[in-house]
Fold this sequence. Notes:
alpha/beta, Lyase, Ornithine Decarboxylase, Chain A, domain 1, TIM Barrel, Methane Monooxygenase Hydroxylase, Chain G, domain 1, 4 domains, 10-stranded mixed sheet, 8-stranded parallel beta barrel, 24 helices, binds pyridoxal-5'-phosphate
Amino acid sequence: MNRKLSKHKKNWHVEDSAALYGLNQWGDCYFSINDRGHIDVSPNGDSNNKLDLIELIHELKGRNLTLPMLIRFDDILEDRLEKLHNAFKVAIEYYNYKGSYQGVFPIKCNQQRHVVEELVSCGYKWNFGLEAGSKAELLIALSLLNDPKALLICNGYKDQRYIETAILARQVGRQPFVVIEQAEEIERIITASKKLGAAPLIGIRAKLSSRSIGRWGNSVGEKAKFGLSIPDILITFEKLCTANLIDDLKLLHFHIGSQINDIGILKDSLQEAGQIYTELRRLGAPINYLDVGGGLGIDYDGSKTVSPASTNYSLQNYANDVVATIQECCKSNNVQMPNLITESGRAIASHFSILIFNILGSSSVPSNTPNTGQNEALIVKNLRETLDNIKKIPHSKLSDHTYLQEAWNDVLKFKDDALTAFRLGYLGLPERAKAEQLSWSCAKEIVKRLPKHEEIPKELNNLHESLAEVYYANLSVFRSAPDTWAIDQLFPIMPIHRLDEEPTKLGSFADLTCDSDGKISSFIDNGNIKSLLELHKIHPGEDYFIGLFLGGAYQEVMGNLHNLFGSTNAVNIRLTSRGKYKLDHVIRSNTKSDVLKAMDHDPEELLERLRIATETAIQKDKLKIIDAQRLMDHIEHSLRQSTYLQS
Ligand SMILES: *Cc1c(COP(=O)(O)O)cnc(C)c1O
């Protein structure tokens, strides 16, 4: 261990980093910090079997895989599946529930071939199934799901062909449930069943009226996009009876939105759905499955609260509440208990993938105090004086922020004067530069003196942010973390090394795109949100790696090609023996050629046009042949490479 490291260790320990970034709260059994200050990953939740993330990245770089990169741990996916099934097993045994549990994975949560294939094969022992929300997803589910006992839930808008496909698939030996989401779909099901002389398994999605909150709160209630209202459910029931299809009505479904924060909301919905189930049973519907949808949340900020980035319940609480609430409802109505289905997506897929990106550099406002020159402009002198005055405010007076507020008002006034004087030609460029630097020096001194834990005016508090560093990330937010931009989703983000060293900077991230929205400036803070993250000083020539965690659900497919930044490298890792791993899959990042083609450009044609332009320049003696070739070589080479910056 070198001297510098041990010096840091005296007052900063890896435990301090774990506490600062909340790692022990959101990291579950999968992420921890080792004594080298690196993040360790325990893919199967066993702390005796870990991989050092930094070592792993170096070995991946050795295989010519550059950053940014998605590292996916298939063992985590399998472990999440195990934990979900175990939670329901425990709950069913504990309450002595008279029905089974069977899960399905909603494909829309992560459609990647390898993810779906992996879940189908790991899930075989539980007859784990799939949920499709479109015809393309149905095709995936029909082809990949080869277990006759697994369920295939067909949600989403359905046309005639969708329904006929499901009916025919039943004859292939699959178990497709066509869930009626819109009142019109019942007619299509009846028509298709008559035409084919066979019926699908039928489900009904109920539009619940229970209260809801949060981002996806409008998934319930009368105005919800999907599901049948109570009158429509009764009409559908009648129509199925008339068409002689009632024997195939086997499932009742509801879904109250993603990331349910408050278990109280879920309980209300379960009670309402439970009542609808028992009423329908009493009317004679042979329903024997209750599908409680998705919504099982992730504790992104580790606070265990109802904040949007958290949940006030655990996986076991969730399973217990589903089982106990439905049991209670059936018992008091003396109705047979249904088999339970969940469609949890986020809860299965979030943990398994980590996005790693490197930092290209950082910048902050120029706040060094400039040297005093001769004949300085009055405005500059005024600012110097203000700076001295701030430094002279006696310590005893600092608890009253009015002194600092007054000083800052002076700074703003002088800064404004400087700008006016510059515009009118009374102040030269070097003097204006000094005025700017001095204003920031004043801000820095004020921030140093701000009383802690007191009501400070927002304006002064915001100085922190103005002085903070911007870290330039080799990343496109729009490609790799779109929900941070689109719906203000919070993910745990932290350095994945140097965690035995105190982070002395505060900063936020700016991405590579030329879009001012291309930034990350909201970070988890134990149930709150902070705009700046504690980061380390960048050492020139040394890598600084940041990890975005819990992003395995929804991000990849929502990501787009803004500014033509394409997909990143992605690798799938499987543990082999202790501490060893193999790369199961490598998906290379999009090349520039790929993203150009995606927008209908022809890379060959672009090259040819450029070649012709160089020929013309050569003819006019403006370009040497060797330089023309150099230019063409650069571009040809670049077309075959990733869209991100090479370190
Ligand atoms: C999106 C969706 C899900 C998955 O929700 P999660 O919150 O990811 O578990 C489940 N069911 C339906 C009908 C959905 O639309």
